[in-house]
Amino acid sequence: MKVIDVLGTPLAATTYDELTDHCHDLVQKGGTWAINFTNTQVLTMRRHQPWFRALTESFDIFVPDGMPLIWTLNRRGAGLDDRVYGPTFMRKFLETGAAHGTHYLLGGSEECAHRLHDRFADVSFVGGFHGRCNAEGELDAKFSPETVVDEINRLSPDFVWIGLGTPKQDAWIHRHKAAIRRGVILAVGFAFDVNAGIKHDAPAWMQRRGLTWVFRILSEPRRLLLRYLRYNTLFLFYLGKDALTRRDPAQALRD
After folding, report:
1. Contacts (Cβ under 8 Å, ≥6 apart) of 234
2. 55, 132, 200, 249: which could join 8 in a potential S-S bond, CB 3.0 to 4.6 Å?
3. Are 105 and 163 in contact (CB under 8 A)?
4. What are the tens digits of pLDDT across the range 5-43?
């Protein structure tokens, strides 16, 4: 996959089909791989906050999850028609790849897990954890973190789906990726609730126009308004700054 640097993050200029094939190739290759579905918040946090950049260095692939990232990549010659949106990728992957591989769900509620099992009845879900996780990536105190990692290693799923949200899922992967023996870890956050039908997603016309964030603010204003305003503004600021100074984002991170 072609990789293009945006604000210091190497974004994979990829498609749903290409990423699907690549995930299956990684399983065959062996080892442990982590994929981040990257929106403007994640991209900007990696540029703006050194602690978060360090936290996300465990990821092997950063996939453009938002349309503003696609527009930015296309200005640099990517030639992409669409983003690779976490909720849509998860749905497509589980619908079309049901006969391939085993899956583990980490995150969401018990109800969410039951709904996912029902919706994707042909998929081999071998286990899951549905307790709470804090911002440091520590699971509910009544569960030993080693217990979950040990279970993942015992069950040896091909794909571990993480739906804990940012930065919790990033912190969990940072803490435990090295201890997981094999499999592809996919940090998809909101995708669990969307595909389980617990939360609504933006209509297709809003998604095509890069307005998913507006829909989500209207759905959860108290939780998301300040977050989106902050990181969308910072995203535009850093893009403009790098364009005006013609500065290499990687060099800007080192300064």
Report:
1. 44, 47, 48
2. 249
3. yes
4. 999 999 999 999 999 999 999 999 999 999 999 999 999
